[in-house]
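Handoff note, outgoing to incoming analyst
You'll be picking up this chain. Sequence as last confirmed:
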Amino acid sequence: MTFSRRIAWVFWRNMVSYKRFVLTTFLASLIQPLFYLVTFGIGMGAYIGHFGGKPYLYFLVPGVLTTSVMMTASFECMYGTFVKIVHEKVYDSLIATPVSAEDAVAGDIAWGAFRGLVSGGLMMAVALFMGILPVSLPSVLLLVLLMVLVGVLFGSLAMVVTSFAPNFDFFNYYSELVITPMLFFSGVFFPLDRFPPWMKALAQFLPLTHAVAVARAVFNGEYTRGLFFNFAVILGLGAAAFFLGVARMKKRLIK
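Most recent structure output, in case you need it:
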């Protein structure tokens, strides 16, 4: 499996195409996470009170931000990629040029990660408006790095799913059986220390759990040795999912 600088060409092709839908996709990327912040953070937060001496929003924002990156990258590499394969035949056109199948898929994963970064950036802007932001500039840069890694991880996982998908309905299995449970069992809305032991053990196998843990530590400026493990999980799973996604998609594209 080899890659080349043509990955950047695929990324740029997506960027040019994206300019036609930039306003609608910005709004779509912002509405659902903003809905979570308003309903859970402000509405339910008024009843919950403080977590660790801070308003509930300080607990919620890192999880919602990470979730926004996950969902945007996932849907871009599922529905967006499927449309390019089946309906627009973009991949057929790409691999008929010097762009290889590996470059085309890797470029789309990079694009999905970028879309996730944009969504995360929008959430950071909302958090700033609410007065909630990481404690220092290095923390902001670390959070940006985390969003890129999370985007690659979940974009790659979505690409694996897309490599098997015969139609759009197939994505409902992944959305309902994987993404939705991660929202509620990864510490996004509630602290994991209140869960039963078996549930806490299960949560450690969910990649979103580790992403949320790092994001929350960055926001609060509370760094521990356990974060090295969280980062290692994100990096390891991201690399494995990336190469598996590229291999699976290549097999689908070149028969």
